[in-house]
Amino acid sequence: MFSTYNLDFFPIIQVLIHGIPQNNEFDEFLQNWLQLYNRQEPFLFLFDIRDLGDISIKYCFKMSLFIRSIRKQNPQYLQKSVILINNNKVKRLLDLIFTLQSPVADVFIINTEENIDDIRLKIDTITIHNTDENITYIEPNKSLLPWM
Predict the structure, then answer these.
(1) CATH number of 47's domain
(2) Cα 117 to the chain's mean position, in Å?
(3) Is the whole-model pTM more than 0.90?
(4) What is the pLDDT of residues 82-122, one digit of tens each?
(5) The domain containing residue 20 runs over which residues?
(6) Collapsing DSSP states into helix, strand and coil, what is residue 58?
(7) What does the pLDDT look like over 117-148, one tens digit per residue?
(8) Helix (H), strand (E) at residue 34
């Protein structure tokens, strides 16, 4: 399975990504995301994409279109996303996504080998005011492309 959503620590949603999507798994990943809005409660994402496979760039475009569509959600329940990575190729893919479409909430990309549970316990301390060389902050609503 490409993605696993863990709601055990709500409002923190841990999402584990593994490999590359098969068949309709990417669409299921997006549908699960949309279902969180049905709860009508604020939430935070903690994505662990350190096991992401050699994914096609087409998913960057799909993801940017999805972000564009989810921006229309009102109210916007997503409060913050923390994305765990461990290589520069994945970082470049994320850069492409957020160049095409800015996020709907603050995004913190962390290059780390730390355990996801350790990050979850300190997720509230991850803010724009305490970033370092291993944390990239992406500000919402600042698309570089005017038509997006």
Answers:
(1) 3.30.750.24
(2) 17
(3) yes
(4) 999 999 999 999 999 999 999 999 999 999 999 999 999 99
(5) 3-138
(6) helix
(7) 999 999 999 999 888 889 999 999 755 554 44
(8) helix 25-38
Has residue 81 been placed in a domain? yes
Q: DSSP letter string over 69-99?
A: HHTT-SS--EEEEEEEE-SHHHHHHHHHHHH
Distance set, CA 19 to CA 26, 50, 84, 102, 120 (Å): 11, 9, 15, 25, 22
Residue 118 makes CB contacts below 8 A (sequence gap 6+) with: none
Residue 82's beta-bridge partner residues? 46, 108
Residue 127 tokens, joined: 């803010």
Amino acid at the residue 50: R
Please report whether residue 18 resides in a domain.
Answer: yes
C-alpha distances (whole Å) from 65 to each of 54, 61, 86, 112, 125 are 21, 6, 25, 28, 30
Integer Cα distance of 114 and 82 in angstroms: 13
Number of domains in the chain: 1
- φ/ψ (deg, to 5) at 90: -65, -40
